[in-house]
Amino acid sequence: MKLRVSAIQYHLHTIDSFEDFALQCEHYLKAALEFDTEFVLYPEFFTTQLLSIKGENGEALTINDLPTFTEQYRNLFTTLAKKYNVHIIAGTHVIEVEGKLRNTAHLFYPDGKIGTQDKIHITPTEVNEWNMSRGDGLNIFETDKGKIAILTCYDIEFPEIVRMAKARGADVIFCPSCTDDRHGFHRVRYTSHARAIENQVYVVLTGTVGALPTVDFMRANFGQAAIITPNDVPFPPKGLLAEGEINNDMLVTADLDLELLYKVREKGSVTTWRDRRVDLYTDWE
């Protein structure tokens, strides 16, 4: 079985209204659908673009205002997923849960259903500057193309959580990301390759590009989408099906062949998933 995925390098820039945001989101979606894609991935924190809209009295909005857009955000992507009959991993959006902010990934199904995954590991900036709280559990999402997981940015840097996702049946990890410099970007990129090798899964990664001059901690972005495979003979060299151009406004698309995963897990040059030594260390199932 194959599934076609597209990852969007979303360009952040100042906008005047939610309608501007909606039009940009639909523009990217329409571009991806020209390639008959089935799953579309937007980046982490791309809805911070809404904070560039001026408040009622012309004041700048803050991260605490972002949850006020949650209903509009969910209605927008529910409508788009149903209208175009596509699975949309609509990056992450900041929501409020029991008085605390959470960085939450959303999966919008073609039938109108919504799945969510809170970011499990949160960075010092998210804690100290934005007062974020961390998520408490891992969700695996059933789709008509198999099981997937959504692990956001910093999450992919922790081997245990990806091992859990694979143990629970996920063949594809979608990783929406947002990094502001080369160091952060390469941490996420290199560990995405490591997780694909360790667990013999696909990782679909993307990040924000552009800048939001009026939004704290979103003034700089360094991003590049990549569709990453295990490193073995059936897959392309370097474990890359596709990658974008760094910091450009664009998207990348590729087909994920799930049968190849099953074959390399059984008879690959290395069989990292099968050969894990659970007699010596914990299996994080």
TrEMBL record:
It holds the Pfam family CN_hydrolase. PROSITE patterns: CN_HYDROLASE (PS50263), UPF0012 (PS01227). Coiled coil: none annotated. The keyword Glycoprotein does not apply. Residues 3-258 form the CN hydrolase domain. One of its GO terms (molecular function) is hydrolase activity. Keywords: Hydrolase. The keyword Hydrolase applies. PANTHER family: HYDROLASE YHCX, NITRILASE-RELATED. Belongs to the carbon-nitrogen hydrolase superfamily. NIT1/NIT2 family. This is Predicted amidohydrolase. It comes from Ureibacillus xyleni.
